[in-house]
Structure formats: structure tokens, C-alpha cells
Amino acid sequence: MMTDKVTIEELGGRGDGIVQLNGKTVFVPYSAPGDVIDIKLNGAKGRLRHIHQKSPHRIEPVCAHFTKCGGCQLQHIEEDYYKNWKAGLIKTALKNQGIDDVEILPLRASPQSSRRRTSLQAIGRGEGKIVLGYAEKGSHNLVDINMCPILVPEIVAFIDPLREFLKKLLKVKQKMTIQITKGDNGLDVVFKSKGEVDLNLRMDLAEFAQVNDLARVSWFDTGLKKPYYETLAERKKPYVTFDGNKVFFPEGAFLQATVDGQNALISAMLKGLGEASRVVDLFSGCGTFSIAAAKKATVHAVENNEEMLVALKNSANIMTNVKQVTTELRDLFLRPLLPHELNTYDVAIIDPPRAGARHQMTEIINSDIKKLIMISCNPITFARDVENLAAAGFKMGAVTPVDQFLYSPHLEIISVFNR
Questions:
Q1: What is the fold of 85-109+242-418?
Q2: 199-209: per-residue pLDDT in tens?
Q3: Is 377 a catalytic site residue?
């Protein structure tokens, strides 16, 4: 087997080690800067075959499934180097847009055992056997897991009972996704697979919820043209807390991945809000930012998911410590708020999906809005938007990086823009 002996030079944007070999850039997963290793080349990828000398930045991973399970890329990197590398993702993205003069605050990293939502994959193998876990890196093959150092203990403890239940449920080659969210009052579990739920399965799932003290169990038939969440057992209405207020969330709701990360983002948002009295929250979801902002200002929340918007409105209606919260069901990709609509607000908060919201950002730039609080989960689209905002006279404040996805390249960013 032909291998090449190389020294890893740096970490790339996706967490792979980088080395120049024969005039080409080669990416080596699970390597560390300073590693002296043998690699087997496959195009622009190198597979680590042997470590001759360990990098000073290399540590022992905390999980037995690391390098097999594709969920984590960077458990082998020591903490300080990892944090500096992650903050560097923002610096690099901004520098590529010609933006150098920026203050980046220390990384707010969520601890281990703090991830409150996940999607496990399962497949039946026959004879009462299943595989339950996550996909391998760059593959659809599943890695069977029994622990995970980034998930909250309540979800980890649920893996074995879930496995035993699925052994009786799954047929050979039947695939299923199990979406698990830890609410403040228990686990919300959604089973996603092809097929209807018959009476026997309904009874089994209700009993499963009872035995495992689950807050709610739902079914999502992926075989339907228009699939929907069907609640099968709701023993406790699941809720989370935004800045001290309960919000009851629907099945499949988007929530920040960790409570620590959520609170770090809310804290930065409130600091940036200042003395604003009228706020519009774009892509509001269930109200992560709307509820907190409504303690200081009236808030108009705009969201395209009706269930999440109803959850936000219903929760806000029973709160006694918030000002007025209005809601609007609207697809901001097809119908962004226009300047004359935005002009009635002091501050806009925007937390778009990973692809960004180019059209809505254009309308904000063309409006009279003087302050924008932007949350982003993509340094590249964030940097693109920063360049456009700067051209329109917005000045960027300090950037707060928030790490809710430990041992991965994913990063949340929040910053305040004024003009």
C-alpha cells in the first residue's frame, strides 16, 4: 500500500488537516497541525494511516465512537487551539470580503453534555436486531452508538430503552429517524418513517411514553406527499424557557441547540437592543429573541412556520411581564418586508437559515432602519452581508461567536450594526 509521510500544516474550514503535497492541497480528516503522519491519497483527500509524531495540539478523544461516527470532527484537538481556530473561521470569512478591522469577542462555548436536540437514525436488521446511531463521515452507513458526550444526559439515558423498543418495531431494512428534543419538562420524541400508525402501534407508543416518562410522542409519515406531525400521546405539554418565560413548542420546532448557546445569544441581543421601543423579529421561530425583547419593547414577530408562530403567540398571550407581541405568517424569501413596512421599527432582529436571506437584507439596507441585530450560523453568508451593510453605511460592532456544536465547524455569530 502506497503512503506518503507528511506534516500537517493547519486546520481547514471544515476541520480537516491541510498539507501541501506535490503542488496540491490535501485534506486529511482527524489530523492535527504538527502531526507527522502517513496518509493514503484519494484525490484531494488523505486518509490517516499511521501517526509517527503527535501534534502538541492533539489530545485523546472523549468518545469511543470518534472517527467512526460522523457527528464530530474535532474531539482530538485541545481546547485552546480549537477555540482559536473556531473564532478564526469568522476572521477568515470577513478577510475574504476585505474586512480586517473587526473586534471578535471570546468564544462562548457550550459545555459537553449540553446538546438538547438530536436526530438518531435506525434501520432494522431482522431477528430482533437494529442499528441505532449516526451516519459515518461521508457515508450513509450507520454507526451503532450507546453514548454521546455532547448530548444532555436525559437523551443519552433514553438511547437504550429506545433501542429495545425499536427491536420489536422495525422490520428488516425498515428505516426510521427518531427526533428527540429535551424540553424543560421532559423529552419530546418524534418517530419518522413510511407508513401509517395502526391501533396496536398507537397503543405501544402510548405505553412507551408512559413507561419512559416522555412528555410527548408523535408520528411523522414520510411516505405522504404532504407529511405532518400526528401527536399520539401528550402527557405533558413540552416547553422551554426564553429569558425566564415558558414557551410551549410544537413538534419539529427549531430551537437553539443548547440552553447555554441560546442564553448567550439572548444576552448579546438584549445588550444591543438598547432603548428601542419598537422591534421587528425576522425569522422569529418560537420566539427565542421576541420573548426576551418584549420585556423592553413592543415586538412584531415574522415567521413562515405557522405552528411555531401560533406557539409564540399563545405563549406571549399568557405572559404578564412582556409588552405587546404581534405575529405575522409570511415567507420572507418570497415576500421580504419592504422598506415602508420596516420604517415603523427602531430595530430589526434577523436570524435567517444557513443560506442567509439576501433579498430581505437588501430591503433592510433600502429602509430607514438605523440598527440591525444579526444572528448567523454561516460565517460565509455573514461576511457577505457585512460587506453589503458596510456599503450602505452600517458600522459593525463587536462580534460574539457562540459554539453550540462542539467538535464541529458549525458556529453561531451575533453582531449589532448601526448607521
A1: Rossmann fold (3.40.50)
A2: 999 999 999 99
A3: yes
